[in-house]
Amino acid sequence: MCGIVGVVGNKNTTDILLQGLEKLEYRGYDSAGIYVTSGVNRFKLIKAVGRISDLRAKIGIDISGSAGIGHTRWATHGKPTVDNAHPHLSQSGRFVLVHNGVIENFVALREKYLADVKLAGETDTEIAVNLIAKLVERDNLSTQEAFQKALSLISGSFAFALMDTTDMGTIYVAKRKSPLLIGLGEDYNMVCSDAMAMIRETNQFLEIHDDEMVILRKDELKILTITGAEVVRKPFTAELDLSDIGKGTFPFYMLKEINDQPTVIRTLLQKYTNGTGEMMIDEAILADILASDQLYVVAAGTSENAGWASKQTFEQLTGIPVSVHTASEFAYNFPILSKKPFFIYLTQSGETADLRQVLVETNRLGLNALTITNVPGSTLSREAAHTLLLHAGPEIAVASTKAYTAQVAMMLILAKAIGVKLSNPQAVTLDLVRELGIAATAIAAIVDMKEVIDDLTYQYTEDTRNCFYIGRGSDYHVAKEASLKMKEISYIQCEGFAAGELKHGTIALIEEGTPVIALISDLRLAPHTRGNLMEVYSRGANTLVIATEACAIDEDEIVIPNVHPLLTPLVTVIPTQLLAYYASLHRGLDVDKPRNLAKSVTVE
Ligand code: F6R
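^ thats the input. predicted complex w/ fructose -6-phosphate below
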């Protein structure tokens, strides 16, 4: 979703802004812009619809300056047009602003303060920049005072970076709910939506908390609360490695990230087990879970699918009931909680606004929670009592792949650790280090089958408008993840169903040639799923089977190695990631940046 970069005090400002915006591309956006200043009232403001490359093309010859702000916009209020792209100038031309988030009371603010102001576009951001200008120009407030007053008048979510064209040396920054981070350079400072976009320049960062503003200059910065109290905070060093952000020789990040998965599992084993095969999880986390009577896993999208794929295993290994919830629904419809609930927030980015809404409430209720995330220092990680990091390396492709496998593996490691504490016989006898090692090898073997899967994708999805995945038990949960992946990057309407449910309605959609892909990894359920597959085959479906060796028959198209029954969601998902990848590729789509989607979903 929208991204912000700002820099003050560096003569390479244009380059830093553009490179930063490129690093933020993965979040998803539809237009972009930069404002670069080289002196009082000497500035360039350039905006473009489309990609950063379109913006670069508009810039043409190099523009230079020593401060500026840039933005990638994911449209919320108003279509993706140049007028709606950020940065936005106030009507007077004095103030310039970039913004992430949603200003909920923009209509009321407009009516009360800005009835006489003519707006160029349709965004809520223009209300904010004109409000600040009005408070300076009408009420004679300083820029800092006006910014502070505007923040107190605005309701909703925001990350702001504001500049005053009469002062090229200061960026005014503030946040509420939307992510924003300060980067500390030598003799210059930066602000950005995430650390990845600044890591080329610095690994020293400073957090900004909600309802704080930061006055950023080249050699100083001041953090203030929205009410003006000064805050002292120490910087931290981020452990990001610049080389993690490249895609190497792979044509797309998604393919690289699919390939990364065996390494991701092995890294998790290194981080969370000792040499003798014991799980090494923070005792405080284990104590909180052991004291609970039910685990509530709250997540969205692929992470929710990872939650579902982990639920049964977690229950089997621990005996503790686990319920999985869609964050956006949970946030405003809290169910009756068990007596001792414990919350687990599963989130690749650690920034998803829907989850954060639930976390704010569980924190208010005084409930301890655990965030399982791939992003150290992310909002959900900072605000939950505990964090377990996925150590998967940055996931850049919008379609999540390695974060899913890392989440499922992490939940297994956690379940094993809890189960052993509870002397659960299944947990005690499970040699998880060995089994995860086998799964990592199996994943590598499936990735090596990519040419076969590429051919099958062509045969099954070339002209199709729709497609179905079916499965039972954990294969059903993987079917849902498989269909999400297919939809989001190939734009084929694809649904994942419990195989036994088809006959209760969905089978009406089966026509001559409709692709139906069955996942079969459980010997107990295989005959039933095969029966359901025959039902759709008899009605014209173009059927394809992904089966583990133990469940496979000669006719099956994709046969994958066996793994421990509790670990199958780690491997059955891999061919489906490749099917989605090739379906997108064959259609000539931008695999890594599908339309309308954002990597970091920071609005509700
Ligand atoms: C799909 C995908 C999304 C995310 C969802 C939650 O490939 O990536 O469905 O899983 O937006 O995001 P996180 O995990 O960052 O909370």
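The pocket of fructose -6-phosphate is lined by residues 300-303, 347-349, 352, 355, 399-400, 484, 488, 601 (CB under 6 Å).
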